[in-house]
């Protein structure tokens, strides 16, 4: 073919190609496009290299192929189009009129291929081509602004791939320049506003500069104005602005932002009806915004609508919601993610995000099914995703947090510590990627991830530093989530949970009380209907239940049970059921325990077989059934409990946070069954399980003590069965280690002391170890009392934890048997004085110290006074004024406030005492007194310390008989007198006669003073009146010696010190008249007859109020009270009686009102053991005071022993009086100096 013919044919082919392309543009018929491509190929063949029109054919073929790729997606068309574009550029030197357009065209094709193939080199070349095109399109060029915008978009895409912040910054600047070239009214103005707004929004996520977010929202508003209803970009503009406002609300908590965001989301939904690809996404977005608004306002209708929208979203687009769908939806989501991964191989721009989607889906499925292969694959996918998003990438920190969380899940299932350690390190790295100042969401999320990992590590290793760090980080989170922040409530709850764990390890009550306060506050930020409202109720219930176990405050237990009930009504979770079981088991009510068991069964039914929560449900129900068996003795409950414990252990392998608890639960149940059946294999397995648990708690671990105690329990059981000495030896060693373990709670250590005592008591070769156990126990008891803010709780605690009087008596007996008499006295003094000594320590004479350092004395006395007021309350004050946040917190938890206040005051008191003890001569100030110091109590007469372990049953019988007869005294006075006479005779034979014989051997003169210091139930009996001294005789002990009592030897020593040197006292007489006490007025008049010998003031009738007495006592050293009265610990000055009648004992120890008066500061007290006959008042007063103020005794009326001798003389006269029954004179006692 000649040149002319070829040129003509090429021209015709070219025209046919152009025409077909134009017709395709009109009709969209693919055959026209295919015809155009074919014509242009043939024309190109006729226009070889060098042909003047070859460039035209290259260009037309490139355009056709590009169009066809857009229609069919055939990658070969795109590849050929790009090559043709390169050929065009080679034929168009720089400066050619369309060179710039060709650059732009190649840039566009490479961008498309990057989107399909993910080759970063395509994006890099595309950006460079765009830069080259801009050099040819200076300001003023018609394509300048579009090229700027295009380059800005490309740089934004590269930032998303690489995380290079400089690309994002340049993209923002280019978008600003493009916007200047397209002012308001320009068709592209709205699009460029939206583009710049989106870039600034992304930039805010990197820098957390709120001004960037504000500017982004402003630009998005402008875009919405430029895209009114009906504009194709109106819907997307609504979405963009809504998202920006939602993000700002999460940063600032400004309610108007979330409200506007919700309205915009509703408008956007109208633009994207059901069936639109974005409809499901918008349902999710609106649901999320409504949930955020509910957390701020508590409007339940927002929450209900949010839930419904989530359901609608699931129906619209189930794979967007794997967490909320059923398992079939999740399976489909995972399969679709796998298919997407095949379409997006390594190097594809969507490869990384596809890895993330599949990893998340597998992680969610693992949480539903516990299939280990899912979590393993999820971890591997997350690692690969991290490689696609290296350090510096905007998503790097998020992926670190995600992988950390997945490894944490894997650790809980597999128990490999290296997984947990890696999880912690990843959380730390994520925190470095999102430092303070980064977006609050990312920073807070990274902190929460690290907190979770550290707590898991603590639960695995017991390292307290991990827990402490998690708590500190939690405090940092709270700073990031201040009041009003959507996550403020959950941050409070999380910190409260951490502090509970800390308290369980350290026993610091400040942590427990702060946890309770935090949980109270968390509930305030979770209104009824909040998904986590029930969890907050349960957390508070758990905290109060733990505090009850420590303090015995029943109010805490009642509140705890109610909170668990409320929590179960909100969300029936297994953990709440467990909490209710724990709380109700404390009440001892069988119906509560039955309810707990049923609730646990209901929880178990809610989880299918294999569900990860099954193990927890097995454990909870097992514990409930074991407690129930201990109440009912139904062996089938114990058998079921053991089976459930075995199932729980299988569900909680080594490394699981409940593994140790499952070991202990199964071990305890087997030990209990052994006690029922005697099957040795049960106790063998129980011991092995205890050894396994002990291996998990090395030296220093806070739970090591309880593990040792469990092992001790199993060993002593087996020893009793087999008699193997090595079991006993190891049992004693384990109990001793548990009791002395300073990392364990004091209550646990006291339990170990009891085990130590019981295991050594029957064995003579272990007598010294037995005595060591008692000494260890006494030192622990005084520490445990500091946890009780009021006296009544302290008594209750001593009864619940360790029966104090018997414990002290047994310890003293053991010391006596070993010949350590001085130690026996020290034990009795320390034990009997635990409460009295604590209180008397608040009233320590400090005259000598006053001369040396008055300010120190003032400071100590001020603290002591406040401690005394706190300790003497019957209950805590609920009447706090609510005028401040602090006062509101006190009102919510008054008991916790009292407890914290006592701990604070005790700490301050300790610091002052430490200062005083550094002063020469005050080294033992308020310290425990040795026997050498205690024995000075005998300076005015022998002291008889009576410890009655060997006589306990006989003495107990005497007390029971006397108490029973006393209750019928009005109806059967003769019977009571008979029983009393028998009791006095038995007391003489059992106790007093041997003592008198010893006194006579020591040549103690007749009618000398002797001091009784009885222990345990002996304090309820009238030792001072024992007799007769021989059959048929009329003499009783008062005819031989003058008896006085003392609650403690230390109290007697202090009374002697204070009594010496007193001048003539001032007497205050107080009387309240009552029809049941007709001779009260006569009694008072009798006392007033002696006012010529002693300065006297009387307060009588209605004027004799507590306040009047308090005021008058300041100027009076002596007090005579004539009235009814009972022991009222709330107010020491209200301890009034008609000659101070006594009140029954606590823990078999009588607390006489007279002894209580001695505590209040009176060194010598005359009182009664029980209610005094009204007729005896005037006569006793006359005989007592006439002797005290006789001419020979008046000058010594205030000396040591004067009142005791006066009472002795008055009783002698009373006994000589006709008609006076035995119980009337036996009633009177003297206490003190």
TrEMBL record:
Gene3D superfamilies: Tetratricopeptide repeat domain (1.25.40.10). Residues 983-1132 form the CHAT domain. Pfam families: CHAT. InterPro entries: CHAT_dom (IPR024983), TPR-like_helical_dom_sf (IPR011990). PANTHER family: FUNGAL LIPASE-LIKE DOMAIN-CONTAINING PROTEIN, KINESIN LIGHT CHAIN. This is CHAT domain-containing protein.
């Amino acid at each position: 073919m000649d040149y002319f013919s070829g040129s003509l044919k090429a021209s015709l082919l070219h025209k046919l190609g152009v025409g077909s392309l134009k017709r395709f543009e009109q009709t969209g018929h693919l055959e026209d496009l295919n015809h155009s491509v074919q014509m242009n190929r043939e024309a190109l063949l006729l226009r070889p290299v060098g042909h003047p029109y070859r460039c035209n054919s290259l260009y037309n073929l490139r355009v056709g192929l590009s169009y066809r790729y857009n229609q069919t997606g055939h990658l070969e068309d795109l590849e050929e189009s790009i090559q043709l574009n390169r050929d065009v550029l080679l034929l168009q030197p720089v400066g050619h009129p369309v060179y710039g357009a060709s650059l732009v065209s190649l840039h566009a094709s490479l961008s498309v291929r990057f989107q399909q193939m993910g080759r970063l080199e395509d994006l890099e070349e595309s950006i460079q081509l765009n830069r080259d095109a801009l050099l040819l399109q200076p300001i003023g060029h018609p394509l300048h602004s579009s090229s700027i915008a295009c380059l800005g978009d490309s740089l934004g895409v590269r930032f998303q791939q690489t995380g290079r912040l400089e690309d994002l910054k340049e993209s923002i600047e280019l978008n600003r320049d493009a916007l200047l070239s397209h002012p308001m009214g320009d068709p592209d103005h709205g699009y460029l506003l939206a583009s710049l707004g989106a870039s600034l929004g992304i930039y805010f996520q990197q820098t957390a500069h709120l001004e960037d977010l504000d500017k982004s929202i402003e630009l998005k508003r402008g875009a919405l104005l430029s895209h009114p209803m009906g504009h194709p970009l109106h819907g997307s503009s609504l979405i963009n602005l809504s998202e920006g406002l939602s993000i700002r609300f999460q940063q600032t908590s400004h309610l108007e932002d979330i409200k506007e965001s919700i309205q915009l989301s509703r408008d956007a939904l109208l633009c994207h009806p059901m069936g639109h690809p974005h409809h499901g996404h918008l349902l999710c977005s609106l649901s999320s915004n409504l949930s955020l608004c509910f957390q701020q306002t508590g409007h339940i209708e927002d929450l209900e609508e949010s839930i419904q929208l989530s359901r609608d979203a699931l129906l619209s687009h189930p794979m967007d919601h794997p967490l909320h769908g059923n398992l079939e939806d999740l399976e489909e989501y995972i399969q679709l993610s796998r298919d997407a991964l095949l379409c997006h191989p390594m190097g594809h721009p969507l490869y990384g995000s596809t890895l993330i989607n599949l990893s998340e889906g597998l992680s969610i499925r693992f949480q539903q099914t516990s299939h280990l292969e899912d979590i393993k694959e999820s971890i591997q996918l997350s690692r690969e995703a991290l490689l696609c998003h290296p350090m510096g990438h905007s998503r790097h920190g998020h992926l670190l947090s995600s992988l950390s969380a997945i490894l944490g899940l894997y650790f809980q299932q597999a128990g490999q510590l290296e997984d947990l350690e890696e999880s912690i390190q990843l959380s730390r790295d994520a925190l470095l990627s999102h430092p303070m100042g980064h977006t609050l969401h990312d920073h807070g999320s990274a902190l929460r991830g690290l907190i979770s990992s550290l707590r898991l590590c603590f639960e695995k290793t017991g390292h307290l530093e991990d827990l402490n760090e998690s708590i500190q980080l939690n405090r940092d989170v709270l700073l990031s989530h201040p009041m009003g922040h959507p996550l403020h409530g959950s941050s409070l709850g999380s910190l409260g949970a951490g502090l509970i764990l800390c308290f369980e390890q350290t026993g610091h009550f400040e942590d427990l009380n702060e946890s309770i306060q935090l949980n109270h506050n968390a509930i305030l930020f979770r209104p009824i209907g909040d998904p986590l409202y029930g969890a907050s109720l349960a957390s508070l219930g758990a905290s109060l239940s733990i505090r009850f176990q420590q303090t015995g405050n029943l109010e805490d237990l009642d509140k705890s049970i109610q909170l668990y009930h409320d929590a179960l009504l909100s969300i029936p979770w297994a953990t709440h059921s467990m909490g209710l079981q724990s709380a109700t088991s404390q009440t001892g009510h069988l119906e509560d325990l039955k309810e707990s068991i049923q609730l646990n069964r209901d929880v178990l039914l809610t989880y299918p077989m294999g569900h990860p929560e099954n193990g927890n449900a097995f454990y909870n129900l097992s514990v409930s059934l074991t407690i129930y068996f201990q109440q009912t003795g139904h062996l089938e409950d114990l058998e079921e409990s053991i089976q459930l414990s075995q199932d729980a252990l299988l569900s909680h392998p080594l490394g699981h946070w409940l593994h140790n608890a499952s070991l202990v639960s199964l071990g305890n149940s087997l030990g209990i069954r052994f006690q029922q059946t005697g099957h040795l294999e049960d106790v063998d397995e129980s011991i092995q399980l205890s050894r396994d648990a002990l291996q998990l708690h090395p030296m220093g671990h806070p739970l090591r003590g309880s593990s040792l105690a469990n092992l001790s329990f199993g060993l002593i059981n087996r020893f009793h069965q087999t008699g193997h000495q090595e079991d006993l030896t190891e049992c004693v060693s384990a109990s001793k280690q548990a009791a002395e373990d300073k990392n364990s709670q004091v209550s646990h250590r006291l339990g170990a002391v009891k085990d130590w005592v019981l295991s050594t008591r029957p064995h003579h070769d272990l007598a010294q170890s037995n005595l060591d156990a008692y000494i260890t126990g006494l030192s622990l008891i005084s520490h445990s009392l500091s946890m009780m803010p009021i006296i009544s709780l302290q008594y209750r605690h001593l009864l619940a934890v360790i029966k104090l009087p018997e414990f002290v008596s047994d310890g003293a007996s053991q010391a006596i048997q070993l010949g350590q008499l001085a130690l026996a006295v020290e034990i009795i003094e320390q034990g009997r004085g635990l409460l009295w000594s604590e209180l008397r320590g608040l009233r320590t004479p400090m005259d000598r110290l006053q001369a040396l350092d008055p300010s120190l004395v003032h400071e100590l006395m001020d603290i002591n006074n406040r401690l005394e007021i706190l300790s003497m309350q019957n209950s805590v004050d609920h009447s706090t004024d609510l005028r401040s946040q602090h006062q509101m917190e006190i009102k919510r938890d008054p008991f916790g406030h009292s407890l914290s206040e006592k701990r604070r005051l005790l700490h301050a008191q300790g610091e002052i005492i430490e200062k005083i003890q550094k002063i020469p001569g005050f080294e033992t100030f308020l310290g425990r007194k040795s026997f050498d110091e205690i024995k000075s109590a005998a300076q005015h007469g022998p002291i008889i310390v009576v410890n009655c372990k060997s006589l306990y049953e006989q003495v107990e019988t005497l007390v029971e008989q006397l108490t029973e007869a006393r209750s019928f005294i009005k109806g059967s006075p003769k019977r009571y007198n008979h029983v009393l006479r028998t009791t006095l005779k038995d007391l003489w034979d059992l106790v007093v006669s041997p003592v008198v014989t010893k006194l006579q051997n020591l040549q103690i003169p007749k009618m000398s003073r002797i001091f009784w210091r009885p222990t345990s139930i002996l304090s309820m009996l009238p030792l001072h009146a024992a007799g007769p001294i021989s059959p048929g005789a009329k003499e009783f002990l008062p005819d031989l010696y003058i008896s006085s009592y003392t609650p403690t030897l230390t109290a007697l020593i202090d009374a002697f010190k204070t009594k010496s040197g007193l001048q003539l006292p001032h007497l205050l007489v107080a009387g309240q008249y009552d029809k049941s006490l007709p001779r009260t007025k006569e009694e008072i008049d009798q006392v007033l007859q002696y006012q010529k010998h002693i300065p006297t003031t009387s307060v009588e009738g209605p004027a004799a109020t507590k306040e009047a007495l308090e005021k008058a006592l300041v100027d009076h050293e002596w007090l005579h009270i004539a009235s009814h009265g009972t022991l009222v610990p709330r107010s020491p000055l209200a301890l009034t009686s008609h000659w101070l009648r006594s009140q029954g004992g606590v823990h078999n120890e009588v607390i006489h009102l007279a002894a209580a008066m001695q505590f209040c500061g009176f060194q010598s007290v005359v009182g009664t053991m029980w209610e005094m006959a009204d007729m005896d008042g005037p006569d006793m007063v006359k005989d007592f005071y006439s002797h005290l103020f006789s001419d020979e005794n008046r000058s010594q009326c205030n000396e040591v022993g004067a009142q005791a001798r006066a009472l002795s003389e008055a009783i002698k006269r009373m006994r000589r009086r006709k008609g006076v029954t035995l119980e009337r004179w036996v009633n009177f006692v003297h206490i003190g100096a």
